[in-house]
Amino acid sequence: MISNHLSMVEHHRPQADAISEQIAQFLAAGGQVNELPSPPRNPIPPPRSTRIDPETVLKRKPPKLTLAERRALRKMAEAL
Fold first, then answer.
1. Integer CA distances (angstroms), 45 to 5, 49, 50, in order
2. Tens digits of per-residue pLDDT, 3-57?
3. Is the dihedral of CA 22, 24, 28, 31 positive or negative?
4. What is the Cα–Cα distance from 75 to 79, expressed in whole angstroms?
């Protein structure tokens, strides 16, 4: 163990010794330690669904009236 804080190393020494003792007891009792491959660092996200729910599809706003359409609408409103 390398540490700039020797007191921290010595502070954790009893816990490390206890773990080492438990490992030794496990191996003495016939236990085996298996080295497994490490899991990927970034798991692959689940695939996206190709199904689109019609209720969730956004409704597009109709385009705004052009200047000519607003003038024609104003003229129709004044005629009434």
1. 40, 12, 15
2. 566 788 788 899 999 999 999 999 999 999 899 998 778 888 889 888 777 777 6
3. positive
4. 6
Residue 2 has pLDDT above 90, yes or no: no
Domain-wise residue ranges, the chain: 1-30
pLDDT at 5: 64
The model scores a pTM over 0.90 = no
Do 1 and 9 touch, CB atoms closer than 8 A? yes
Query: Cβ distance 73 to 65 under 8 Å?
Result: yes
Residue 30 CA to residue 26 CA, distance in Å, equals 7
Contact 3, 9 (CB under 8 A): yes
Measured CA to CA, the distance from residue 78 to residue 70 in angstroms comes to 12
Angle at 34 between CA 33 and CA 36, to 5 degrees: 145
